[in-house]
Q: What sequence folds into this?
């Protein structure tokens, strides 16, 4: 009895080690949610990282060194993400980590990375990830709070004072809902109705009816990702609600227009990135070449529309490559120092400028207010 | 008034989907006493295969037919390969086998198709119908009608046809059924084909409303299971009533109480019903053999 | 050679495994995996008492893990409790809740019990997910440091974080297994196992069926709760996933796959299912496919679970 067990366990442990045998110059780790409830976000992130590493190695790598990518799928589970972060650092001996599709997984990875002093670039939204500033943690996406601010700015311009909110109860929707409620007062806007839906729900007409019947609502805001916002948008038109509808950056992709239907999506506004309007950017826009190249490469390779989330992974990788190039070294500490000195790096999301007390490096200008016009994204202003 | 009507429409739309899934549970349970947790994956496959076929150029009705037939065939395969070899295993093992099948089908779907969200056009357009100040999508009528037609068909099948009674006989006492000359293997095959086909049909009808992706199955399975248990497992009447009830409870809770806890309301009702009626609303009393 | 009782043999094997395997660890990551196996093993030992001994199904035990986990996150900040006492508080709350919920729902049988426990688990997960002001919502919440590792360091025992949790969880698992094994041999345990055969038969020989079932439910809830606390304290962070439906399913699957009839079998199952996703990363996108296949194949061909079936094979060959 004893013999069976002791021989089985080490055998399994040997099998575990199989994945970590490669030997290349720069070892990059990634743990993203390629499956699970956040797969809609994590899948394009995983694809983007694999594509970019392949591209870079084909061009000869950084400073002549190739990149070896070790990528794990944490399924959106914080406990798993912590295990993979430990594995990346202790077993695969990576020099930097990109990942953490959701805020929960990012928080798990960052505590392991901080302990081991390995630079970590998070792809999740919450402001808690980089505030207070932690020495080794950076992130690429705007915060939820910035998305709320951008939306409320736009509402203010149109003289909107009372709104209804309908949010997903997933991490993305709930986090943005909380941030928006927190910041809304600064814009003199009042939330007259605050409804939620489960990300798996099939019909939101009950919630939207309630919002429509709330007194004096002038616009509706829908923080969420995945199929929820598409269904909200369809139900919105079904009920014949004429008020402006704002979506979040969670659905900033051509896929949203397709799923909601061109007619239903017409007039929807959201804070998006340059990625969605690559062809509309001015010729001298510093983001234009980056955005165009990424869009062409991704859509050509995977035959699906690019979205904001894949863009976050793109920018995380770009930040890392830039830092390693400038540092001339792939030592974790050197990468960290160089990341912190990032200046004027054009990514798909915005132009990054980091500093010791700012590990995000984006401001509100990175967001562009977009509107669906004739079934396509267009820039408002 | 128009508000209440709108909530009812919402509840009926969603409830019809749950009812269709619950009806699928009923058939397999009747034939084999197995609750098939992979039922939700049949719904997913109905949607995904139809989308795939449609995107590849097949006309929508043909794509839907292909999806239903392919899923039915898959149902038969699951019965032959996973359920029949495990005959007589305890309930927990059967739960795990069917959950294993569900995980497997999800894994296969993400490889064969992709991880994106998909949809296809509604059958009768997107112009909502206005009734008494409330609106309903034509596709909702398709789903509700589908649930009613499937229910009526099953009810006739189980009460009026020899084959249907053979299914019930097999469920009551397999050995006795064999002794009176029922081909119980055929009954099982038929039940899985029927159940998977109905699941796929639910996916075909619902996708223009709910949208589909490789991982939507679990959600459908949970709600359908809950609906079937609320109504009383094994009874098509119970499945229909249970499915619609859960949909209506959710919509009315969302409308009048709290949208955040609408699912909680559904489960609280289930717990209460089971407390007073341990066999569900329409369930049969079963006796344990010692 | 004097024959060891099954109880001491099980405990010896476990203790030896916990003590010896670290010598084969190539890196610190393996301590983490080991600690996870032990935590899952503890939760699954509770399932053995409920399902293996008493024959009752629960698809909602992750709810208790959630209560144990969030107790460690919330009690220290809101009640000023030490994290270890917070874990105890979580276990007490879980026990009380299991008692209150168990009374009505344990009257249900088979799939009806499954859906009722499922509903309970979903309700807990929903509260953790939605009461953002208190629980941090789906983004999760930080959990304070247990502090025992620092204490050990002061006493001269300097362990890495991974090593500490490996041995700490290993010891808790040993204690949990010891209690479960004692229960198995006690009169109460025999009453439990009588239920597994037939509740009516057990009733006719004078066993208070309802009470015995409730006991099993409460005890297994405490196991799940302590396991949840250990996850929270170890990760210093927790999300509502711990209470989710998938986690409930995972617990039952681990127990049944390994062999829910025995503590060692169930822990073996926890080990396999914890290791599997780590091994399957080599297969990347085929992971789910293989996992589903393994679940089906084991349940079809090794019905009593992996360990009992393997042992039988070995014994058969030996004779």
A:
């Amino acid at each position: 009895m004893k013999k069976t067990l002791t021989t089985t366990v080490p055998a399994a442990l040997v099998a575990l080690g199989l994945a970590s045998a490669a030997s290349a110059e720069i070892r990059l780790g990634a743990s993203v949610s390629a499956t699970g409830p956040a797969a809609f976000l994590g899948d394009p992130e995983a694809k983007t990282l694999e594509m970019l590493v392949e591209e870079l190695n084909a061009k000869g790598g950084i400073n002549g060194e190739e990149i070896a990518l070790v990528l794990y799928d944490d399924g959106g589970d914080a406990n798993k993400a912590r295990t993979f972060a430990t594995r990346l650092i202790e077993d695969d001996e990576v020099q930097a980590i990109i990942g953490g599709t959701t805020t929960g997984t990012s928080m798990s990875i960052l505590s392991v990375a901080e302990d081991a002093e390995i630079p970590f670039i998070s792809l999740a939204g919450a402001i808690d990830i980089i505030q207070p500033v932690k020495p080794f943690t950076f992130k690429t996406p705007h915060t939820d709070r910035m998305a709320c601010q951008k939306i409320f700015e736009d509402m203010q311009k149109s003289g909107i004072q009372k709104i209804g909110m309908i949010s997903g109860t997933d991490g993305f929707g709930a986090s943005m809902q909380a941030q928006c409620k927190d910041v809304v007062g600064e814009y003199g806007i009042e939330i007259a109705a605050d409804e939620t839906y489960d990300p798996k729900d099939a019909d939101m007409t009950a919630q939207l009816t309630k919002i429509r019947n709330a007194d004096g609502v002038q616009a509706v805001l829908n923080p969420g990702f995945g199929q929820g916002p598409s269904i909200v948008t369809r139900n919105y038109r079904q009920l014949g609600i004429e008020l402006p509808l704002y979506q979040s950056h969670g659905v900033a992709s051509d896929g949203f227009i397709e799923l909601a239907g061109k007619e239903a999506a017409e007039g929807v506004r959201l804070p998006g990135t340059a990625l969605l309007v690559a062809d509309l950017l001015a010729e001298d826009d510093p983001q234009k070449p980056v955005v165009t190249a990424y869009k062409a490469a991704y859509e050509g390779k995977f035959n699906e529309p690019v979205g904001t989330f894949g863009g976050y992974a793109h920018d995380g990788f770009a930040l890392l490559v830039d830092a390693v190039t400038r540092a001339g070294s792939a030592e974790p500490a050197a990468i960290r120092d160089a990341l912190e000195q990032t200046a004027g790096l054009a990514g798909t999301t915005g132009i990054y400028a980091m500093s010791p007390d700012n590990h995000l490096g984006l401001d509100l200008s990175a967001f562009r207010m977009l509107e669906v016009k004739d079934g396509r994204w267009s820039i408002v202003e | 008034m128009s508000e209440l009507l709108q909530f009812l429409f919402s509840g009926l739309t969603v409830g019809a989907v749950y009812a269709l899934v619950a009806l699928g549970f009923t058939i397999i349970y009747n034939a084999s006493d197995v609750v098939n947790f992979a039922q939700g994956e049949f719904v997913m496959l109905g949607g995904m295969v139809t989308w795939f076929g449609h995107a590849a150029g097949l006309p929508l009705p043909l794509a839907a037919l292909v999806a239903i037939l392919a899923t039915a065939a898959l149902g038969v395969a699951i019965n032959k390969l996973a359920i029949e070899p495990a005959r007589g295993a305890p309930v927990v093992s059967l739960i795990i086998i069917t959950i294993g099948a569900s995980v497997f089908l999800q894994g296969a779907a993400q490889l064969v198709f992709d991880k994106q969200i998909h949809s296809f056009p509604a059958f009768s357009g997107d112009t909502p119908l206005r009734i008494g100040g409330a609106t309903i999508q034509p596709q909702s009528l398709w789903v509700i009608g589908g649930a009613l037609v499937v229910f009526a068909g099953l009810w006739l099948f189980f009460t009026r046809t020899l084959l249907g009674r053979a299914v019930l006989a097999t469920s009551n006492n397999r050995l006795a059924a064999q002794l009176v000359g029922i081909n119980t293997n055929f009954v099982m095959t038929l039940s899985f084909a029927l159940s998977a086909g109905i699941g796929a049909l639910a996916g075909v009808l619902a996708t223009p409303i709910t949208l589909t992706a490789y991982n939507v199955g679990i959600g459908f399975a949970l709600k359908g299971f809950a609906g079937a248990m609320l109504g009383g497992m094994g009874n098509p009447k119970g499945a229909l009533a249970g499915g619609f009830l859960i949909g209506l409870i959710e919509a009315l809770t969302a409308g009048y109480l709290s949208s955040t806890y609408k699912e909680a309301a559904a489960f609280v009702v289930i717990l209460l019903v089971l407390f007073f009626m341990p066999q569900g609303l329409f369930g049969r009393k079963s006796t344990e053999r010692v | 050679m004097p024959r060891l009782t099954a109880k001491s043999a099980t405990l010896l094997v476990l203790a030896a495994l916990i003590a010896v395997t670290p010598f084969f660890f190539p890196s610190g990551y393996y301590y983490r995996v080991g600690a996870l196996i032990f935590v899952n093993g503890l939760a699954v030992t509770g399932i053995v008492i409920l399902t293996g001994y008493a024959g009752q199904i629960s698809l909602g035990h992750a709810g208790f893990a959630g209560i144990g986990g969030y107790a460690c996150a919330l009690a220290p900040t809101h009640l000023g409790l030490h994290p270890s006492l917070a874990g105890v508080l979580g276990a007490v709350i879980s026990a009380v809740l299991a008692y209150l919920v168990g009374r009505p729902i344990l009257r249900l049988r088979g799939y009806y019990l499954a859906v009722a426990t499922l509903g309970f688990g979903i309700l807990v997960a929903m509260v953790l997910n939605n009461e953002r002001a208190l629980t941090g919502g789906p983004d999760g919440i930080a959990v304070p440091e247990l502090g025992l590792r620092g204490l050990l360091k002061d006493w001269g025992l300097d362990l890495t974080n991974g090593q500490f949790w490996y041995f700490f969880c290993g010891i808790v698992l040993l204690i949990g297994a010891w209690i479960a094994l004692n229960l198995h041999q006690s009169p109460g345990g025999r009453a439990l196992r009588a239920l597994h055969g037939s509740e009516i038969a057990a009733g006719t020989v004078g066993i208070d069926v309802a009470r015995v079932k409730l006991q099993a439910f409460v005890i297994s809830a405490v196991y799940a709760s302590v396991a949840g606390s250990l996850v929270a304290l170890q990760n210093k962070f927790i999300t509502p996933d711990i209470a989710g439906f998938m986690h409930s399913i995972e617990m039952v699957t681990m127990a049944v796959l390994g062999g829910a009839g025995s503590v060692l079998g169930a822990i073996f199952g926890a080990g396999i299912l914890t290791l599997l996703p780590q091994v399957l990363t080599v297969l990347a996108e085929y992971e789910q496919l293989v996992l589903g296949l393994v679940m089906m194949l084991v349940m079809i061909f090794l019905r009593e679970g992996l360990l009992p079936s393997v042992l039988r094979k070995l014994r058969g060959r030996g004779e």
Summary: The longest helix of chain C spans residues 209-235.
